[in-house]
Amino acid sequence: MRVPLNWLREYVAVDAPVEELADKLGTATCEVERIIRRGVADEDGNLGFYRVGLVLEAGKHPNADRLQLCRVDVGEGEPRQIVCGAWNFGAGATVAVALPGAVLPGGTRLEEAKLRGEVSRGMILSERELELGQDHTGILVLDEGPEPGTPLGDVFPLGEDVLEVETTPNRPDLLSVYGFAREVAALYRVDLSPLDLPRGQTPGPGQNEQVDVRVEDLEGCPRYIGRLFRDVRIGPSPPWLKARLVAGGMRPISNVVDVTNYVMQALGNPLHAFDLTKLGGERIVVRRAAPGETIRTLDGEVRHLEPSDLVIADASKPVALAGIMGSEDSEVDESTTSVLLEAANFEPIGILRSSERLGLRTEGSNRWEKGVDPYLAEPAANLASELIVDLSGARVTGETEVATELPERPVVAYRPQRADDLIGLSVEPNEQRQTLESLGFEVEAAADWQVTVPTWRARDVTREADVVEEVARFHLDEIPFTLPLRREMAGRLTREQRLRRLVEEVLLGCGCSEIYTSSLAASDPEAAAVRLPTPLTADQAVLRTTLLEGLVATAQRNLDAGNEGIRLFELARVYVPPADPRPDERWHVGAIVEGGLPRAKGTLETLLAALKVEPRFERTQEPFLHPGKAARLEGGWVGELHPERLEGNWGVFELDLPTVFARVPERLVYEDVITYPALRQDLAFAVAEDVAAGELVEAAREAAGPELRQMRPFDVYRGEQVGPGRKSIAFAVVYQSPERTLTDEDAAALRERIVKALAERFGAELRS
Amino acid sequence: MDPKALETEAQSAIAGAESPAELDEARIRYLGRKSELKQALRQVRDRESGMALNAVRESLEAAFAERERALRTAELEHVLAEESADVTLPGESIPRGHYHLLTQIRREVEDVFLGLGYEVVDGDEVEDTRHLFDALNMPLGHVTRSPLHTLFLNGDIVLRTETSASQIRVMESREPPVYMVSLGRVYRRDTADATHSPIFHQAEGLAVDRGITVADLKGTLLHFARALFGEEREVRFSTDFFPFTEPSLGMAVSCFICEGAGCRTCKFTGWIELLGSGLVDPNVLRNVGYDPEEVSGFAFGIGLERVAMLRHGVPDIRMFWENDLRFLGQF
Predict the structure, then answer these.
(1) Which site among B142, B188, B208, B239 would you substitute to test the A interface, given the most A Cβ atoms closer than 10 Å to its Cβ?
(2) Which residue in A442, A666, B43, B92 is deepest, having the highest Cβ count within 10 Å?
(3) pTM of the predicted protein model
């Protein structure tokens, strides 16, 4: 929304600098995105170079066929010779002239010049040069009246400051210049021009032409005012109106259409003008669309309507999508002489639904969908009538209104003390009252106040808290900075949150970098994974149940980027079906590292060691893993990525964290490994190729008991000495007791039990 | 023999020894088993000459020890001098991982509020419309409820559009006071571009207690803004609108790039819009069974990507999802 300040000042007399105005509105009302300076700059006397001129003579340039040579009276006694490229005027025309020294919009300074041998001491201006529109086919011809030499800025605003604002959806009243004037009036405590617009011209007694308006859906359209104009002459709007529309961000079209847009921008009530003769049966029916109906809207698109769409129809067909856009075939055009002006009120949600479904958002729909004050239709109709009569020479010949009872204004019980309690700042009741009254609220002050809400805020302000906001927003900068007393609460991370941080820290220490990948995937190995019925794109169709795909894709991307030493991990949720009604969201951690199974497993083991969880690995098969290098453990898997998935030698693992965390000890208890010395020896066993080291360790533990503190494989040897089909695994073995010093005899006995057990179960031979 | 003459001779031999080997030779000659001194000591009969010889021996032993230390020091110095390294060469390469930038910011936010006595709550990402919309006072016609904005799984199950639903679940589960932050992924039906991502991260805060005011909101968020952007920051509040807060306030922080001089980041205003906040709407309190006459509260929400992009000048939101190590490794 754009608020031109000259326009604003028509309703409220405030001459504060624009920056200050923007600042105050920005705090109390809505975001002011920027200040736009439109048109001719008002600096260093620049406006003085712009004058009304009267063309005294105009004829062909002696040396150029396309140029005119003019003599123009600009109020200096002596006329000026000006060369001009346009031909849409002649002697006697009143025109806009810029004199040498003028800085044009865009920043060029006009100089006296010689054009094809003739001096030009000024420039006759077109609309585009003044930023009044795009028309540069001819120059701007003004209505007769102003004397030559009159400052052009007295005829229409040459330039001005415009606030570009971003209003919030609860404030449809701010989608109008008048709405902003009301805020400014309240902020500066100055008067706002009243909106008691004259009724305007009315049909003579007994001459009221009946306009046939039927509203079949009073819920969708609680109010419809139709006004009929005859003898309309369609033409361009005068410069002042064009200047305002352009400043407001709209494009001038023709006088009648411009008036509807002007009134919408001024007051916030969108209007529509129909060519009466194009309405079948010269009738208006407000109804829901019939199945299969279509309409070709003003933008040339054919729209297929549904029975939920509210339309304005004539006797047989829709002529407008209510509140959104008119049809091409009922449009006002150059030949129109009878206009039916619609000033209505539409219910917001229906307009929002239709405009969203059709992907058609307009200035009108933007206002309706936020809820326009139904009381506004009449002043809007009055202002528009006055302007249409004024600008097009029309007569008002008929009027009609169909409406339900307009809603009552809400009355809210209010305690001024409550505002202080919630804001944390004491605002005098009298001050509160003045703020509210200047915004149009009526206050009846007893012990508790009764606050009557103005019609244009009736949707937004219905409760005491809403009134508190009206007071608070005018005092935001004065509110102090404090902290809550917080007597009963202490904050800390949960056990799971602390463990998740630990997981991240350990993996970081292992050289892995953390990645974030999408929870939505193209597909998932889990057939029952939760699918989005209407995904945004095909690769965001399923809620993932594994982190693997994100890890692989990210490794691939880094590989393609030429990065080296790639080690990545992600800690994120997966979404485990069934969704009854919601899936089980489980935190997983996964990692992918260059260096195959050993590096992945080493990383995983470091992580588990930090968590004090002892894993047990078993051979497994997964389609995405190397068939011979894949293991599972409680809550996860680890392995070498199947070489077809990614070039190189990659190790991967994934863990379900709740499963792993369940095994993390709550409390660590001191174990005495210091008082009595440990005995160390290396043992190597020759076994068949298919025997796993883990199985040997497990069996040894069973046989030797807790005095076998550690048995860690450190070498695997294959070769002549052990024979074909066999391998030798060397273990670093540590014996220790927390109760006594183990003797060599103790160690020998422990070793004997291990050797015997392994020989019996695996045919293992101790190698010397 | 003349002990004095022997001592003088030996001392000069010690001083003249240029290496441990030479010193050892001298030691054998003057203090060895067959040395003149040792033989004389063995033959000594009277106390006086014994004392004199022993004095010579002790003096020589001390001299040998000292000379040995001196020679060893010199030798070590020589070796060390030979071993000098180019200290500008890099050290051993030790692989080091990096937290994702968003995790770093997530933890900063968590830690600020842990310090203020708040809990950290992990809300679910898949939510029902009752918790995400109804309880948060979002009317049926609200734009966010449209499938054009929100990813629906079925009729009333959606991917959360903001973390706020976790507020509702916490408040439903217990009596006030509640002081919590909730951080995590949120989902919107947005096409990815430099500033939009269908998935992004939010941090959400809520304080509900007796006597919570707008002033408490301002003080808490000032502290928060300074923790994220520096102690010298100022904040500014402005009127805004959210269905779940009343009054609703936007907060801007003084520009930390230009310090108010005007730059592209602050659009030449000196202020950067940072977050939305407000007092919890009484309807929201009532929806979870709290009495708005008894307790009041404030809430706020902020995008973690926005913080990261502003603070670190990250130009494109998609970089957070691309995870290029050349990007990750910078933080």
Answers:
(1) B239
(2) A442
(3) 0.87
